[in-house]
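Weekly puzzle thread! Below is a chain. First person to post its structure in token form gets bragging rights.
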Amino acid sequence: MMKTFAFTGAKKIVFGRGSLLTLAAQIKDLQSKKPLVVIDKNLVQTGLLDQITKVLIPGGIKCSVFDKVVPEPPIELADEGAKLAVKNKCDIIIGVGGGSAMDVAKAIAVLATNKGSAVDYLGLNKVSQPGLPKIMIPTTAGTGSEVTFTAVFVRKNLKKKEGMNSPYLYPELALLDPDLTLTLPPAPTAQTGLDALCHAIESYTSVNASPMSEMFSLEAIALIAENLRTCVHDGKNIEARERMLLGSLYAGIGLANAGVTAVHSLSYPLGGQYGVGHGLANTMLLPAVMAFNLPAALEKFTDIAEAMGENVEGLPVREAAYLALDAVETLIEDCGIHETLAQFGIKEKDFQALADVAVTVARPLENNPRKITKDDMITIYAQAL
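Winning reply:
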């Protein structure tokens, strides 16, 4: 019997080359006129903020700017940005950039209308009322944050990452313009793209996957496998960039509805304690977690292998399933990702402490297709050393 399931997401998605040019009209459609643009300084230096203001000015819209976003953002940024939004009487929040900028923007939007600080809303369903309207504009094909209900932050005092999770974090609009990804250099293209692949594989194999989420997750795997290499090595190829951004979007939709699995639980302490970027942390752990989970989901891993272009016809199911692992390892290598945990100063003696933190990131572990213990986690960390 088919399982009962729900399906949620961003209220509206606009996708296509040049769609940034519709931003002023989209703001007016949301009956807003005083946006706060949340962005990082690196993107400001590329001229993207100027590009955005040139779109807004003819529409009579003047924006405030919060440009303090950094990778693996500390939670204090959300509080600081919310104070600016309230001070300037902003009525809509626009997140521009990668996952960090969009996560900060989503948190700012709810903090502007809910009392207290960002730390008060870490966890699940702790936001009591809607925030300001939110428009998310990704410049990477990676996190899928433009269509999720999560904002992840580093708590530096605790050396850990935690997430704010609420339906009120879903954006009113996800505006995806592939042209904005053309200038992304090869390394972040690879890391964010493999992050999207991780989301797609984890959401497809999650125990909470539904027929609807599986459709998005599997198509995301196929799009990413087909186009990521080209995006890394021929970044100006707009057709590949377009399909890659669509794959990232689909992966985000799958993630939002089925959840992620053990890769994310194990990667959180790498970011919180060692400052490892989210996409790279997931990439280093993905093959080992796949190998661990594979016996519990042979048919699904066979589907993944086929989606990634492997010929599984006539093969025993176990042999076909392992082709998924081969395909992922080859894609990682082809994208030039060779980092290991050891390069970040992580040693074998650290594994127990990492596992102690990872086991507290409970929701992804509950989604994992195979029960995983601390000893299993330590083994996985060792394989990524």
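Puzzle host: Confirmed. Bonus trivia for everyone else. Residues 211-233 form the longest helix (23 residues).
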